[in-house]
Amino acid sequence: MRPLSRLFLAALTFSLVGGASLPATSHSVSVVDPQVETPALYDDEAGGNSNGDDPAIWVHPSKSGKSVVIGTAKEGGLFVYNLDGQQIQHLAAPAAPGPDDEVGRFNNVDVTYDFGGRDLAVVSDRGRDQLRIYAIANGQLTDVTDPAAPFVFNTTQQQVNDAETAYGLATWKDSTGTYALVSRRHRTSIGLVKLLPKPNGKVGYQLVKTLNLPSSFTLPNGQSWTPCDEPGREPQVEGMVVDQEKDVLYAAQEDVGVWRMRADLTGTPVLMDKVREYGVPATYDPVADECTPGTDPGYGGQRLTADAEGLTIYYREDGKGYLLASSQGDNTFAVYRREGSNAYLGQFRIGSYNGIDGVEHSDGSTVLNVPLGDFEEGLFISHDGANTPTAPDRENTNFKFADWSDIADGLDLDVDTDGWDPRD
């Protein structure tokens, strides 16, 4: 166990809400039909080592039906799809700079609008510990990353090869500029990175602030608990989203739960919900490379089964709306109110329909309230970590599209296409 003095890094104080939770109970889960899926991605040499992870949506400025979906695929780079799920572009991840160095490995992606008059897709490259930045015009992406772009968390190539690198990502704009919130793999760190215009139309960036979430926690019984992992690894954050109207960052610490904090990384982060496994003691088995859990003391949450993963927000015109969180361990999505203390509203999963299989082991997801082509009341997209039909010895992933109205009907939520528009 880490000593309690290590819990409050960078002289920050953290709040945990809810106290002791009851053990997980059964709950009704709404089943939503997928309408579209993208082609299979295969994580092997024949498939370009493509392993789907995180989607983002770019909204066309005048023709919603020409909007596109951008998906990360680790070493496979970026894939761009139309609203029918058809691939229209592929961009490779960067090659390794040297024979013993890591290749590019694209993890998370988000879209930001009107950066010096251009729309951008910003990507976390966990292989190179960098951000890759792409200008978007007419649904086509062009790499505009500054050739001199620095590492995000490290200072030398050897550190990148040996250490923890850029992982999760969400973009944010305020009156001072355009930013990316970037998490660090196998660490609790989140960095605030400012995008910077560079000569010849390139875009660079600079890390301006870092916050460290706790790696250990004091339970209601007074004992200290650290989520189990391989020695030397801390409970990392991947899924993140910024409420663009409220300047609030939500960050999913995979084995812990979902945090709410200011997007500028000031103030007091609050643990708004916990995974069911929160507080469960476990022992790491190096031979099996897995953790063996002990007796559940009953301090966990009731809605999220580890890992807590992708986060996304559905906006309403009245300043309200919904925060959606991927409960990867049970293949569902939890829905919370966007406002106040983020009250829990229900759970849904993407089932199988009309020859399209359901979503399992979802990493990233995204939702928009604006009409997009045939998705007239909004669109929800999720990574599917176990796409079918399966192929022998081939890891198969892709992305599934669903109507927001189907999600809303199942959970008695609102449909509001007049809510926040990302282009406003």
UniProtKB/TrEMBL annotation:
- Per the record, the domain of life is Bacteria
Q: Which residues form the signal peptide?
A: 1-26
The record's PROSITE patterns line, in alphabetical order, gives: BP_PHYTASE (PS51662)
Give UniProt keywords alphabetically: Signal
The record places domain BPP at: 22-411
Q: What InterPro entries does its record include?
A: 6-blade_b-propeller_TolB-like (IPR011042), B-propeller_Phytase (IPR003431)
* The protein's name: Phytase
